[in-house]
Amino acid sequence: MSKLSTQDQFIDLSDYGRSFGKFLAKNLQTTQFTPIHVTLLFGFCGILAIVCMLAGYYITAALLLLLKSGIDAADGELARLKKTPSYSGRYLDSIFDILLNFLFLSTITYITQGNLVLLFGAFFGMQLQGTLYNYYYVILRTKSIGGDSTSKIFENKTPNALPGETQSSVNVLFKIYFLLYGLFDKIIYFLDAKAHKASKFPNWFMTCLSVYGLGFQLFMIALFLATRNLDLVLPFFILMTFPVFFFILIRKRFIK
Q1: CA 235, chain centre distance (Å)
Q2: How far is residue 62 CA from its own chain's centroid?
Q3: Tens digit of pLDDT for each residue in 10-39?
Q4: DSSP assignment, residue 8?
Q5: Is there a domain that residue 179 lies in?
Q6: Which pLDDT value is given to residue 147?
Q7: pTM for the whole thing?
Q8: Hey, what's the torsion of the CAs at 132, 209, 26, 97, to 10 degrees?
């Protein structure tokens, strides 16, 4: 079940876990498992990857990061199959992602005895990159299928709860989400406030931009783990931040 119409589909380098996610979701469709359960499962998978890093099992940790990407794709797929979209699940998924990202980078910094300035620089860069990708992707998605029930271009106010969830849980999770992501959203919106007015993002542009998707970011961390080049992780995410401004310039100059 694609989130985009056929003409808007592009090669998403960060979405390699989608096939596994669909497989898992299909097998859970008739069970008692909910999308929230799947979100908790990918959270556990991420924590297990950290434990393996600390124990020196880098190959296992790398595989767990790739598995985490596959499970991460399954919660949304399951919600669509069961027709149970929820803001609670959407915000919990994002909260887990950003917390795990910080823990992944912190663990690598601890192992390599890295600099804390580099840690926060890499984390800031990693999140800014992901925010730009998600910003453009959600714009494309809403234009492609005429709107999305849980993902919004502008996440600046608490939404009304959907059937099957409570307003109190949505309120709490949105506040946490906004606290963690609000700064990055504001920066990207400041840099390209008129992106939502663009008629269409070319497929080639979105494919290039997908290197900023979380799946690809985790793939790169897994690659550095598997090759025992952990000391390259922090510099990589810092350096990858600079092309953010190049992508925005391309969008403003050529994609109207």
Answers
A1: 20
A2: 17
A3: 999 999 999 999 999 999 999 999 999 999
A4: G
A5: yes
A6: 46
A7: 0.94
A8: -40
The token pair at 66 is 């790739």
CATH classification of the domain holding 53: 1.20.120.1760
Q: Which domain holds residue 62?
A: 6-254
Helices (H), 113-255: 116-145, 167-191, 203-209, 214-226, 233-239, 243-254
Total domains in the chain come to 1
Is residue 137 within 8 Å of 2, Cβ to Cβ? no
Q: Which of 7-11, 76-80, 212-216, 247-251 has the least mean pLDDT?
A: 7-11
Question: Which of these ranges, 41-45, 111-115, 160-164, has the smallest mean pLDDT?
Answer: 160-164
Helix (H, G, I), strand (E, B) or coil at 13: coil
Structure-token match 């008629």, residue found: 199
Q: What is the mean pLDDT of residues 154-162?
A: 89
Gyration radius of the chain's alpha carbons: 18
Both tokens of 248, joined, read 């925005």
Residues 52-56, mean pLDDT to the nearest whole number: 98
Evaluate whether 192 touches 246 at the Cβ level (below 8 Å).
no
